[in-house]
């Protein structure tokens, strides 16, 4: 039994690279879906300047799912919001240096450390939709990611709706928050593939999926893919717990199969 769990990008890359006479398009790829339907969410960082200082080293503590159900002006899911944790330690800010550099241009008297200890970062994420043209594939010896963002309106609505909330909070309590109204935003580029999923979707029909419902490849009886590749659709939250739960489910299946 072979269980592949390299992450959605690298699992697809390995299957595609493993072409042979029996599988000329890559193992488990007669449907031409291996590597396709790559999803990685729409991710933005918004910085809120505070009037009081903090350590810049605290953990993430707040998450908001109220806008997952839309609002009075938009009936579709907009996404998930969480505070980033302290800017000095949170990885998303290392992936988006233009955020802080933009703030220092707007507020030239602030140094980066001073800014980090007088600001709160918010991480906004919206599900992207499966698209066969968003894919992982090889071009010669180089691995390529083709990705065109979709569901952009929902994400933009989430960002602007959250900015309204931040401004209302700042107006109500100017002792804690700056009233400059400045909230720099940075969108994650294609290089940031956190929450990647969907490149080997599962399903009952071999013509429209790579894996069966137990995450075994339709074409190869002893090959399973048990990571975020199996997702047929995305969500606005981290896929990690779903990946873990599915791995336990597939593990029970393998125990039964092996007797």
Structural features:
alpha+beta, 259 residues, elongated, two-stranded parallel ribbon, single chain
Descriptive notes:
This protein is an alpha+beta fold and 259 residues long. The protein is built from six helices and nine strands. The protein has helices spanning 8-17, 91-94, 98-106, 112-116, 152-172, 240-258, and strands spanning 2-4, 42-49, 63-64, 80-83, 119-126, 135-139, 142-146, 185-187, 223-225. The longest helix has 21 residues, at 152-172. It is elongated, with a radius of gyration of 21 Å. The two termini are 13 Å apart.
Write the layout of secondary structure elements.
Elements: E1 2-4, H1 8-17, E2 42-49, E3 63-64, E4 80-83, H2 91-94, H3 98-106, H4 112-116, E5 119-126, E6 135-139, E7 142-146, H5 152-172, E8 185-187, E9 223-225, H6 240-258
Parallel strand pairs: 1-9
Antiparallel strand pairs: 2-5, 2-8, 3-4, 4-5, 6-7
State Rg.
21 Å
Give the class from helix and strand content and strand pairing: alpha+beta
**Overall spatial form:** elongated
Main β-sheet, spatial strand arrangement? 3-4-5-2-8
Largest sheet: 5 strands, antiparallel
Number of helices: 6
Low-pLDDT sequence parts: none
Number of strands: 9
The share of residues in extended strands comes to: 15-25%
What is the average of the pLDDT values?
88
Along the chain, the helix and strand elements come as: EHEEEHHHEEEHEEH
Distance between the termini: 13 Å
The residue fraction in helices comes out at 25-40%
Oligomer: single chain
């Amino acid at each position: 039994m072979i269980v592949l769990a390299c992450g959605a990008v690298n699992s697809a890359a390995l299957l595609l690279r493993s072409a042979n006479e029996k599988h000329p398009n890559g193992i488990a790829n007669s449907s031409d879906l291996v590597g396709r339907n790559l999803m990685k969410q729409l991710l933005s960082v918004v910085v809120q300047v505070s009037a009081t200082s903090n350590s810049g080293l605290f953990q993430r503590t707040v998450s908001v799912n109220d806008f997952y159900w839309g609002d009075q002006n938009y009936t579709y899911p907009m996404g998930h919001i969480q505070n980033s944790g302290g800017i000095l330690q949170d990885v998303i800010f290392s992936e988006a240096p233009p955020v802080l550099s933009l703030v220092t241009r707007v507020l030239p008297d602030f140094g980066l450390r001073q800014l980090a200890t007088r600001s709160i970062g918010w991480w906004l994420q919206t599900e992207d939709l499966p698209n066969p043209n968003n894919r992982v594939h090889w071009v010669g010896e180089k691995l390529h990611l083709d990705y065109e963002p979709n569901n952009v309106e929902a994400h933009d609505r989430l960002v602007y709706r959250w900015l309204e909330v931040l401004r209302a909070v700042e107006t109500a309590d100017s002792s804690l928050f700056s009233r400059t109204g400045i909230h720099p935003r940075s969108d994650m580029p294609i290089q940031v593939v956190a929450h990647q999923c969907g490149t080997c979707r599962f399903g009952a029909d071999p013509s429209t999926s790579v894996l069966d419902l137990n995450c075994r490849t339709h074409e190869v009886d002893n090959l399973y893919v048990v990571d975020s590749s199996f997702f047929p659709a995305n969500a606005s939250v981290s896929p990690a717990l779903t990946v873990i739960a599915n791995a336990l489910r597939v593990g029970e299946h393998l125990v039964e199969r092996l007797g």
